[in-house]
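= Paired protein data =
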Amino acid sequence: MADILSPLPGTFYHKPSPEEPPFKSAGDDVAVGDTVGLIEVMKTFIEVKAEVAGKFAAYSAGDAAPVTAGQALAVLEA
């Protein structure tokens, strides 16, 4: 298991927009560099990318939830 961590504090989003599906769902393959979420900081959106490959297990942080730097956002199965 590997955690994807928040690179900075802000608001974490699972989806690119409210009308679209989440970036990843349980069981999806994840490659290094895949976007798994967005963090909003002062109206700027930063992509959160996977640094390891694996299968997506679940989001650890809620959608539209405030997060801190270093907080686990999602879990991957190796």
User: Anything to note?
Assistant: The chain has a mean pLDDT of 96. The domain at 2-77 is CATH 2.40.50.100 (OB fold (Dihydrolipoamide Acetyltransferase, E2P)).
